[in-house]
Design a protein that fits this description.
Arc Repressor Mutant, subunit A, Alpha-Beta Plaits, AsnC-type_HTH_dom, 4-stranded antiparallel β-sheet, transcription regulation, single chain, alpha+beta, 4 strands, 19% strand, sequence-specific DNA binding, 157 residues, 2 domains
């Protein structure tokens, strides 16, 4: 059973602000929310220990680094009971950056980032076809990402 977190308004404000700008200093956060930098530090540490905050990530334009193909793969499993085994095998493929267990047509739905179509073909043909438990896949190539964002957990404006 999950433990109920006791998050207050300040916790949500900190989370929202840092989701928008993880580089903001504790001092600047403190000024914005009228508390000390020490208070911000303690709150962030509490959020990390509770597993709410799981580090920070650098937002990189992957196209600038030569990753030109984003695709989504719907995975049909032979049996839904194979999900955990197949998910662990898919985790070994570094180009698969996100995987979800889903309802609907697919058992699993994943996002793949590749340098080119040749790399995508290798993943689809060589890597996925070797995984026992996958019945078949359906691939969708993204032509453009219109936007990507975090959920708004607290209105700060």
């Amino acid at each position: 059973m999950a433990t109920k977190l006791n998050l207050d308004k300040l916790d949500y404000q900190i989370i929202q602000e840092m989701m928008e700008n993880a580089e903001i200093s504790y001092a600047d956060l403190g000024k914005k929310f009228f508390v000390s930098a020490g208070t911000i530090h303690v709150r962030i540490k509490k959020l990390q220990e509770a597993g709410v905050v799981k580090g920070t990530k650098l937002n990189v334009d992957l196209k600038q680094l030569g990753y030109d193909v984003i695709a989504f793969i719907g995975v049909y499993l032979e049996k839904s009971s194979l999900y955990d085994i197949v998910a662990e095998e898919l985790r070994k493929i570094p180009q698969i950056v996100r995987l979800n267990y889903t309802t609907g047509n697919y058992s699993m739905f994943g996002e793949v980032v590749c340098k080119d179509i040749t790399e995508l073909r290798q993943i689809l043909h060589d890597d996925l076809q070797k995984i026992k438990g996958i019945e078949r896949t359906e691939t969708f190539i993204s032509l453009d990402e219109s936007f990507g964002r975090n959920v708004q957990v607290y209105k700060t404006k």
